[in-house]
Write a structure and sequence with these properties.
Length: about 500
């Protein structure tokens, strides 16, 4: 196969996957049969994960929900991990797992790679994790990202993808003089007030943004993923409301491609954003350095004005966020002076623990190693093999599951929870949609528990990330484990 430096050999047929997902949500719910789920709970979680259960029960008295990160919530209770290496994880009870969560996507090389770890240890022995002052690795990481990603003429490190998305909005408003933000419905650009809108399911607006006053969204709106006509309608409407400062998209579709979009749509967003005086902002928190070393933007041949980075740019270490882009945009994050000495408005941007020596060192050597080893291509090949095997397994048991991948980002959609949408022209359908998605979410969690009991860690039981630490033998073992779960599935009504 000719991957040509990217994780993708052949881009997914977004229209065909959408058709399959449309059919899936018309189906009754399918999942692990109740008697089989009960066996997993008794024979695995209760019998073999006692240490995890005890620790989580103790933690709940101090930590809300018992864990500090949403990714750790699992049915029937979170598992306590104590070791991560390559493609494997180990829990407090000594159980071994294949890691297809990959910390939410950043560990393209696999967990705790020695080539990065050794450099971090060297740094800790000399400088320590943070000084609050400049370190040479800040420059090295920025230069590496600029060299790899064509649209990034300048780069500013931040603490997280959420911070980068917030910062991008401020830069866009200063650069364009416009007020409004448009984002792809269902996409996730962090949890800041203005961008926590229309998340997970297109059309939700602020329904899933509890704790945020409605007025905060007065300058934020969503457009339906894959629909250029809807995007242009919103852009036209904004012309009379202060203009559009930025159009945000996840380049493979919302929620890391859960609802995939076409190449034509991606290129069309660039054209429409610029036609109406807005900046195009690519959220490459997941796709950056996973689809390819130049990001998804290089694969699609798009030149975004700003790019949001996260996760991988610190190699899985803390402080994983940043914003990069064209020089005329990024000058708004400088000292208030552009390259010609002219004064410009400076965006409010902080972060005491952004760009620490440890995060920049880890990020620099991670990107060096990804580039040196061709990690994106290898992870993509492993994902192609995995998806082909899972598709064959689903066919064998006549399951209606929709299984596809965009490079090393894989989706095993068993219930179609996130393929629903809210149509506000028919508000009476809202209770039905919310009830149905809640019911299907529960069954998705049950699937995740079954996978965990078979030694596979996934993201919410529906999304998988492969890394360069996998080989074909491992992938075939993973497929066999999924097959054991699929064998126990049936129509639940």
């Amino acid at each position: 196969m000719a991957y040509n430096g990217f994780a993708i050999d052949r881009y997914v047929d977004a229209e065909e996957v959408t058709r399959q997902l449309d059919e899936l949500i018309r189906q009754p719910v399918w999942g692990v049969r109740p008697e089989e789920l009960e066996k997993y709970e008794e024979e695995y979680f209760e019998a073999k994960c006692r240490g995890s259960k005890e620790r989580i029960d103790e933690a709940k008295s101090i930590i809300p929900g018992g864990v500090q990160h949403n990714l750790a919530f699992n049915y029937p209770f979170p598992i306590v991990m104590t070791k991560a290496e390559g493609a494997k994880l180990w829990d407090i009870d000594g159980n071994e797992y294949y890691d297809l969560l990959q910390a939410g996507g950043p560990t393209v090389l696999g967990s705790n790679p020695p080539a990065v770890r050794e450099k971090v240890i060297e740094l800790l022995e000399t400088c320590g994790p943070s000084t609050g002052l400049f370190h040479e690795y800040e420059y090295k990481l920025a230069k590496k990202i600029s060299d790899l990603v064509p649209s990034v003429e300048m780069f500013r490190m931040l603490g997280s993808g959420t911070e980068a998305a917030m910062c991008a909005a401020r830069v866009a408003r200063l650069k364009t003089g416009n007020k409004n933000l448009l984002k792809m419905g269902g996409a996730y650009h962090g949890w800041s007030d203005q961008l926590a809108y229309g998340i997970r399911i297109p059309g939700t607006k602020g329904l899933q943004s509890r704790g945020i006053p409605k007025y905060v969204f007065s300058h934020t709106d969503e457009f339906f993923p894959g629909d250029l006509e809807d995007l242009e309608k919103k852009l036209k409407r904004n012309r009379a409301r202060g203009g559009t400062a930025a159009v945000y998209i996840e380049p493979v579709g919302p929620e890391s491609g859960t609802r995939p979009v076409t190449r034509e749509f991606i290129r069309g967003t660039e054209e429409l954003a610029h036609k109406y005086g807005a900046l195009l902002i690519f959220d490459e928190v997941v796709t950056g350095f996973r689809i390819g070393t130049g990001g998804a933007q290089s694969y699609f041949g798009v030149d975004p004005d700003l790019t949001i980075f996260g996760k991988v740019i610190a190699g899985g270490y803390p402080g994983a966020g940043g914003i990069g882009g064209h020089r005329d945009c990024m000058q708004h994050l400088g000292a208030g002076i552009d390259s010609s000495g002219k004064k410009v408005k400076k965006a409010l941007c902080g972060g005491t623990m952004a760009a620490t020596p440890i995060s920049c060192c880890a990020g620099y050597y991670t990107l060096e190693e990804i580039e040196r080893t061709g990690a994106c291509e290898k992870a993509g090949r492993m994902a192609d093999r995995l998806v082909a095997g899972l598709q064959a397994s689903a066919r064998k048991y006549e399951l209606p599951f929709v299984i596809f991948n965009q490079g090393s980002i894989c989706h095993v959609d068993t219930v179609g929870t996130m393929h629903f949408a809210i149509d506000w022209s028919k508000p009476w359908t809202l209770p039905t949609v919310m009830k149905e998605t809640g019911r299907r979410q529960k069954e998705m969690e049950h699937m995740g528990a079954a996978y965990m009991a078979e030694g596979i860690v996934t993201l919410a039981g529906s999304r998988l990330y492969t890394s360069a630490a996998y080989d074909e033998e491992m992938i075939d073992d993973v497929i066999a484990r999924f097959d054991r779960v699929f064998e126990k599935c049936g129509r639940l009504g």
